[in-house]
Amino acid sequence: MLLQEILSYNEQFVENKEYVPYEATKMPQKRMVVVSCMDARLVELLPKALDLHNGDAKILKTAGGTITHPFGSIMRSIVTAVYELNADEIYIIGHHACGMSQSNPKGTLQKILDRGVASPEILSAIEYAGIDLEKWLFGFDNVEDSIQANINLVKNHPLIPKDVPVHGLVIDPHTGKLDLLVDGYKALNGVKN
User: Fold this and answer.
1) Which segments are annotated as binding site?
2) What is the value of pTM for the model shown?
3) The domain at 28-103+139-188 falls in which architecture?
């Protein structure tokens, strides 16, 4: 059982004080917040590619690295990082070959039905309540467009200071190579990227 393996490992981890190299404060040392995808390939690769170490940044992970609602939990986390945790910069980092660019909302809904989690009547009731499930489950067609939409949402958010740079990058999930889409410093100065 995976849970028992984790708990056993953790007991040894704590007993052997293996946590010591990871001790840090809650304030990000590099004063940055990163919004990126939850893709398993990026768990270690993204921080290494950015030269981030424990305590350097606030890293928010979400499907596709997307911010789906201007007052949802990801945006709340960004606002908190800026005002309460001294983050001075925001990085929106998507990645090539993202599963959300190949999402299949109809297929996901069928899997929900197949597992017996919901019935067609329940899905209809959710739709009737105003939730477009296919739209909600859909990712995006193009990672660059998705990153730009996220940048626009953050930059134009009424609670984000206008002097906070919002950068946009795409990472290669195999090599860690970063492609710069939007230089937030230039954007603050009115320079087109």
Assistant:
1) 37, 39, 95, 98
2) 0.91
3) 3-Layer(aba) Sandwich (3.40)
